[in-house]
């Protein structure tokens, strides 16, 4: 099964020139811990609640800090044509609960979560990903 069969296609994004406060408000309203950062339809990074709360506060940054200054770049992505098991392994290795899905030009096509894997792949791929995500000692990306 391809990841395009299980991913969520309607993904809200944020722009790099928006503020940390705008990102945090979005996270509260959608009950999400991360948001893809895009320029046009091209994925350039992710911003997480941890980026804002831990990195931002540790560096003394306020709510008006631009997303580009807090976002995580160099993120792990799933390719739109990858199979579910490969993506589950990527999630496990990177210890993340969500992965953006991109095409060959890094255009954001969707996002896949552990929940998507659990609902659509008989749970095996989700179990594999969850085992890696749950391992202590990794550096989340």
From TrEMBL:
It holds the Pfam family CBS. Residues 120-130 have a biased composition (Basic and acidic residues). Gene3D superfamilies: CBS-domain. Keywords: CBS domain. Residues 120-141 are annotated as: Disordered. Residues 7-65, 71-130 form the CBS domain. Transmembrane segments: none annotated. PANTHER family: CBS DOMAIN-CONTAINING PROTEIN (PTHR43080:SF2), CBS DOMAIN-CONTAINING PROTEIN CBSX3, MITOCHONDRIAL (PTHR43080). This is CBS domain-containing protein.
């Amino acid at each position: 099964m391809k990841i395009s069969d299980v991913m969520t296609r309607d993904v809200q994004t944020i722009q790099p020139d928006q503020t940390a406060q705008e990102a945090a408000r979005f996270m509260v309203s959608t009950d999400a811990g991360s948001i893809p950062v895009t320029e046009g339809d091209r994925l350039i990074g992710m911003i997480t609640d941890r980026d804002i709360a831990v990195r931002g506060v540790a560096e003394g940054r306020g709510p008006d800090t631009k997303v580009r200054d807090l976002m995580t770049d160099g993120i792990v992505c799933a390719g739109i044509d990858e199979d579910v098991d490969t993506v589950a392994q990527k999630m496990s290795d990177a210890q993340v609960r969500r992965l953006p899905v991109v095409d060959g030009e890094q255009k954001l096509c969707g996002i896949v979560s552990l929940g998507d894997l659990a609902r659509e792949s008989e749970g095996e791929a989700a179990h594999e990903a969850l085992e890696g995500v749950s391992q202590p000692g990794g550096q989340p990306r």
